[in-house]
Design brief:
This protein is α/β, with parallel strands linked by helices. The protein is 24% helix and 26% strand. The chain has four helices and seven strands. The strands form two sheets. A five-stranded mixed sheet has the order 3-5-4-6-7. A two-stranded antiparallel ribbon has the order 1-2. α2 links the parallel β4 and β5.
Length: 148
Amino acid sequence: MSGSTVIPKRPVLVNCPFCSTINRVDFARLNDRPKCARCKKPLTLDRPQKVGEGDFQRIIGGASVPVVVDFYADWCGPCHAMAPILDDFALARKGEVLVLKLDTDASPGIARQFGIRGIPTLIAFRDGKETRRHTGVGDRKALDTLVT
């Protein structure tokens, strides 16, 4: 090959926030502005993506990049304090890390499976397996540490 570089694919699965269709997106091609295969609306991956019991395992297991999951609840004050930090992290690490949010009240089975006793709890996954966790409000450095 003369002068061309091959960029390795980094596929992930994400839910469309509009129609809930699971889409395969290549993080190496985010500049192409991916759209949902069904409704054609944009898939914005610069912010945390919602996930639930029905798609959690498939999305975690199908990621070729590190995944950080925020286990939270809508009524939780510390979870609200954590949200802008998580948003900043998702934007800064766009294309490198898949950031997900799982509502523990709506998905108690997953919360139980991972022994979530306090929220917010942030868990990092690689190849579908937990690698690190942080419980309580954390700063940006704590989030970066999860995926290093």
